[in-house]
Amino acid sequence: MERHEIEQLMKDVYTSSEAAEYLNISVQRLNRLVHDKKIVPIKANKSITLFLKSDLEKWHIVSFSANNDKQTNNASFNIDIPYVRDAILYYTIQQYFNNSDKKTKKFIDMITASYDFDYRSTLQVNIPLLARLLNTTKNGFYQEYGRVKNSFLQLSDEVILSKKGDEVYSKLLASTEDAPPYLFLKGDVNLLNEKSVCVVGSRNASNEGMKRTEKLVKSLIHRNIVVNAGLAKGIDTATHKTALKNNGKTIAVIGTPINRYYPKENKELQLQIEEKGLVVSQFPPCNETFRWNFPLRNATMSGISLATIIMEAGETSGALKQADYALKQSRDVLIPKSAIDNPVIRWPRKYIDRGAKPFSTLREALEILNANQVLKGVFKISDLEEVKDVEMD
Question: Could you say which of 98, 123, 153 is where a domain stops?
Fold first, then answer.
């Protein structure tokens, strides 16, 4: 094929941002359409997603004729999907177990075995059974169901609900016993199954800790590793901002429902990650933000990660809960040698004794990750040579 023929052909091939602009929708909305298979890209991998102009035009015509005003960015979340209805019923039941997934799943397993419970039965069938077993009235359960359903309707149509075991749900996370039954997602859902490393640490990080985090994150994203973190101040913020600034991919795993922002000063950062990366929440929109959400979130954050790197943390830092889950899930935990040698804190030596690995240079960090059975060999010799003299301490 001649060059001019290729150039002519490429005029009808759009990237994600170009396709979203052409359709006058957000990239998140486009991701939702791809997830629902309403628009099928001609190519999709970790580097790029491409669309044919003709496919975009077909969707635009169909959506306009169906009901154009429902396809705007202000459209509400679609609850008329069977698995979404399942989730609404699940989270209604969860309200009677203090929002505990473990207790809720145990109850559902019991009634499925003993009473042949089926999510897809009608509410007229399910509500009398559930109300009796949960020691409430039929009217009381129905009102709770309505409250949960209405909270789902408050979500934007850009939110994607992923059920454990489906194509989008992280395969790494699904293999852990801590995996939540559903994830609420906003952004590029493909990142959930890319090679990802978690970089976390103190909210009150030192300037040196922030600088070391920037060096490490740059090195990872330049080698096509997705980084992830919570959305707290300090190291988490440095991880995300460095990735975004250097055109890398980042995932924020939050401890609030997907439609809330915490801390408030990071709202703009969360919105940027929704646009250019991925925001993940395991908490339904009907729930308040409880203090125990954040350690639960750490299990999910570790679960999607091949390794966790704790850049800087105090004795009571939430990052240590992350390390606990990572070791429990047989993930690598990396700790800077400067933290191990710090006489003021004792936690680093305890975690080294439990299997965490120390590093002093970028090369040492990459070599540890390179030995990971899933990541194994992802870094070339040239990658390691490039950073061999870059100190982290």
Answer: 153
CB within 8 Å of 38: residues ≥ 6 apart: 59
Are 97 and 126 contained in the same domain? yes
The reply to whether 127 falls in a domain is yes
- Give the pLDDT confidence score for residue 291 in this predicted structure: 87
Same domain flag for 191 and 173: yes
Residues 367 and 245 reside in one and the same domain: yes
Q: Kindly state whether residues 239 and 310 are assigned to the same domain.
A: yes
pTM for this prediction: 0.83
Full residue range of the structural domain in which residue 298 is found: 162-386
Residues 226 and 358 in one domain: yes
N- to C-terminal Cα separation, the chain? 53
Residues 6+ apart with CB under 8 A from 32: 157, 158, 159, 160
Give the number of domains in the chain: 3
Residue 42 has a pLDDT of 83
Q: Amino acid identity, residue 145? A: Y
CB distance 372 to 332 below 8 Å: yes
Q: Where a domain ends, among 96, 127, 153?
A: 153
**Residue 70, CB-side half-sphere exposure with 13 Å CA sphere:** 8
Burial 41-62 (b: 16+ CB within 10 A, else e): beeeeeeebbbbeebbeebbee
pLDDT digits (tens, 9 = 90+) for 97-139: 999 999 999 999 999 999 999 999 999 999 999 999 999 999 9
pLDDT computed for residue 374 by the predictor? 64
The CATH number of the domain where 53 resides is what?
1.10.1660.10
